[in-house]
Amino acid sequence: MEHQVLTSLLGAWALAACSAEEAAAVEEHLGACDPCADEALRLREAVGLLQRPESLDLDPALRTRVLEGCLERRPPRIPVPAWATPYDAETARLDALLQDIGDAEWHAPVRLRWYEADGAASRRTTVAGVIAHLLTVDGLVAVALGLADPLGDIAAPSGAPAGRTEAYWRASHYPPTRAVRAPWREQSHGIVRTVSFTGEAGRMPVSYGDFELPLHDAMLDRAFECWVHAEDIAEAVDYPYQPPSARHLHRMIDLAARMLPDVLAARRRAGLASPAARPRLVAAGEPGRSLRLEIEGSGGGEWLIPLDSPGALGSADHEVAHVALDGVEFCRLAAGHVPPADAAAGQLGDREAIRDVLFAAASLSRM
C-alpha cells in the first residue's frame, strides 16, 4: 500500500477497526516510518483516554442475576420465601466483604451510631465486634426458630439487642477476631434454611425484649441492620459498598413506614412529641390526619402515615403534610446515621407533624 493510504488507516488501526490484512500492512509500515510510528503512538494514547476505566469490583447485582438465571433453569424444591431473600442477599454481600479483608483489618475501629431520646448515641468497637453484634441479635430470630442461641450459657441482662450484645462482648476473654465470621455465617445459613420450610406465612413472633415483630418483618429488620453495619465496616476498611437492590430496599423502607405509627404513639407517651401536636381521637380503622411520605430514587414509593393513632388509616383526604426523601437517605435516617433536621429533601405542610415523623424515623434506630 502507498504511504498516503497507510497514513489514512492509522486512526482505524488505533481503534482496532482495521481488517487483518490492513493491520498487518500498517504495523509493517510503522517499523520503517518514524513519523507514522510517532503519530500511531499518539493516537493509541488518545484512544486510551477516551475509554472509561473499568472497576475491578464485581457488579453488586451480579450475584442476583446469576442466581435468578440458575433458578429459572432449575427451580429449588424448597424456595426461600420472598420476605427472606433480602436477608439472604445482604448476609452474602457482607460475607464477600469479610472474605476480602486481611487479619489486621478485623481490628479496625468502628463506631456504631444510633438515636436515643432524641440525641445521637454511639459505641466504639471493631470490625470483629460488629460481626459479634450481628451474631447475637440475629440469634433472636434463631431462637424463635428453635435453633441454638449464640449466647449459649452467657446470661444477658435483658432480651433486647443491646443487652445481648454487651453480654457477649463482656464474656469474651479476648477481643473478637475473624474467628467470629464462621459462627455468624453458619447461623445465617441456618436461619435461611429453616425459614424456607415455613412457606409464605412467616407470622411467628420474634421477641426483641420490649417489643415483638412477626418473623417476616424480623427478617427484613435483620437484612436492614446487616446492610447498615456492612456500610460501617466498609467505611472503616475503605472498601466500596453499594446499597441493596431496589426491590429489597423497597421492602426495608416499607417496614420502616409501617412501624412509624407505633413509634409516634410511643414518643407521645414518653413526652417526646412536639408540644403543639394534639392527636385527635380516631377510632381504629377510621381515616385520620396523615403525612405523605414520598421516597424518591431506588426502592421508592409513597406511604400515608397516620399521625394520631396507630390503628387509624392513612388518608389522602386528611393529608396535613408532605415529606420527600431519597430512599438511601431515609434508610440512613432510620439507622440513626443522619440527623432528622438534615434529612428531608422537601417539606410541605404542618411543620410539627413533619418534625415528629422525622424524629420518629430516627427513633427506629438502636445499637
From TrEMBL:
It comes from the Bacteria. Keywords: Transcription, Transcription regulation. Residues 88-234 form the Mycothiol-dependent maleylpyruvate isomerase metal-binding domain. Pfam families: MDMPI_N, zf-HC2. Gene3D superfamilies: Anti-sigma factor, zinc-finger domain (1.10.10.1320), dinb family like domain (1.20.120.450). Residues 7-37 form the Putative zinc-finger domain. This is MDMPI N domain containing protein. It comes from Streptomyces ambofaciens. The lineage of its organism: Bacteria, Bacillati, Actinomycetota, Actinomycetes, Kitasatosporales.
